[in-house]
Amino acid sequence: MYISARRLLAAVSAAAALALATPVAVAAPQATASQTEAQRTRPAFRMPFLCGQVWRGNNWNGHSPAHSIDWNHYDAAGNPDDFGRRVLASAGGEVLTSHYSTSNGYGHTIVIGHGNGWRTRYAHLSERTVAVGTQVTRGQVIGRVGASSAIYEFPPHLHYEQIHNGSVVVSVVQGVVWSDFLDRRLTSTNGC
């Protein structure tokens, strides 16, 4: 009986050692079907500015709506010089709206539909150069940077959103994931 207990203890010890040494498979988080679809169908969005221009994109805490980006341009001395700079379509598509919004803070606004539930919004423009129904190509001028708003007063900048199936999502611009609270400079490759 003593030998059986020793064998049982040895067997249990060996099994425990094997269990501790064997890596445990942990399932990686799986994307939902809608997230996978969004990743698969997302257009190759470019910055909405002329090729070679360097802009500061900022997604700050409390920015509304969440995930939107404010773009600013600076001269060689570090002074803001956004006003009137050309705004380009970041992907091709159809202009769905081109209007001055008095019901929210967007002011002069353009929304472009890119298919598969994707849209981009460009707001606070000083000028809109495309009308509803216009087919635009990536890199086409659609307006100019401004500070328009029926509600707020702020310095010139471009408010930019990528929208999928009606919700503003984290933008991917030229392969850069513009996660929340990101503040960085990027050089445009739109139309290069």
Q: Which structural class fits the helix and strand makeup?
A: alpha+beta
Listing every helix as H and every strand as E from the N terminus to the C terminus, the arrangement reads HHEEEEEEEEEEEEE
Beta-strand residue percentage: 35-45%
Please state the oligomeric state of the protein chains shown: single chain
Number of helical elements: 2
Straight-line N-to-C gap: 84 Å
Structure commentary:
The protein is of the alpha+beta class and 192 residues long. It is 15% helix and 36% strand. It has two helices and 13 strands; from the N terminus they run H-H-E-E-E-E-E-E-E-E-E-E-E-E-E. The chain has helices at 2-21, 33-41; strands at residues 54-58, 69-72, 86-88, 93-101, 107-115, 118-128, 135-136, 141-145, 158-164, 167-169, 171-173, 176-178, 183-187. Strands 1, 2, 3, 4, 5, 6, 7, 8, 9, 10 and 13 form an eleven-stranded antiparallel β-sheet that branches. Strands 11-12 form a two-stranded antiparallel ribbon. The N and C termini lie far apart (84 Å). The model is unreliable at 14-28 (pLDDT under 50).
